[in-house]
Specification:
It is built from 13 helices and four strands. Helix 3 packs antiparallel against helix 4, helix 6 packs across helix 10 and helix 8 packs across helix 10. Strand 2 and strand 3 form a beta hairpin. The model has no long low-confidence stretch (mean pLDDT about 85). The protein is an all-alpha fold. The longest helix is centred in the N-terminal third of the chain and has 35 residues. The chain has a domain of about 210 residues. It is globular. The strands form two sheets. It has a two-stranded antiparallel sheet. The protein has a two-stranded antiparallel sheet with strand order 2-3.
Length: about 325
Amino acid sequence: MSNNTIISRLRLLYRSNSTLYMLIVLLIALTILLSILLPGRIFTLGNFQSMSFQLPELGILAIAMMITILSGGINLSIIATTNVSGIITATILTKFITVGSGNSFFISVIAVLTGWAAALLIGIINGFIIAYVGVSPILATLGMMTVLQGFNILYTKGYVISGFPPEILFIGNGTILGIPLPLIIFLVIAFIIGILLDRTPFGLSNYLIGSNETASYLSGINVKKVLICTYAISSLLCGIASTVIIAHFNSARAGYAESYLLITILAAVLGGADPYGGLGKISGLVIALFILQVASSGLNLLGVSTHFTKALWGIILLIVIGLRNIKLKK
């Protein structure tokens, strides 16, 4: 690796750390503001528990989105992939587990792994189309999203698949030492992906491809292989998210988490990910998710319309990207 590449990487790390400090300050400021506007209402045990169950679903999907953004791409099919995985898992659970069945745990494991395998296959297909066929990530994943949405609706006919065994429901609603299991799953995934991105050859290659794909290829990186792995990991995370979601709601359907697509992009960009790739850290994403979750909860308690909240997320996304572009031009 050349000295210029190392210096460039160090500069990117400095910018990431600066963003992290700014996010911490923003979180503290938001906490103080909501404490003043909603004294005794926002920071209650019940509200914390509610946020602890809601954040992991969005958080895992946001990581799935961010890992592709870091490579200079995007994965618009994360929600559709999540629902396909959940529907497949739910179908196996409801078809093969009956009341009083003694092998429900074994079937549950098979169902979950099958759902994850389906998600992984979708990611590999996405990566192959992008890496080998040469289709742009936004078009490839948009096309995949459309195909999967059609399949989801065609298969379920708009109905809900429900009725899962206790071991599945525990994943989405259980606690360990008072800590919601979904939150533990999210934090473990964030830690693993953080290590994968920061301390492995794959992670460094992913960053470098996002910074300059041509230079990465000329430096000996197997760009096609890395891209396939990136989209495979992204989709596998969608499979894990699907398990948490269907376990939380005790059902699967075609339209779950549709509102999350914009928020996952917002969380990634707000957390410091460069929309053009090559820059961003999982730690920044985690703090950004807490900021958005606290803000969403506060707006809800203030009686703000959910439609206005969605519009607000879009406005914030445009502002963050605009400010970042202005900063880069200076």
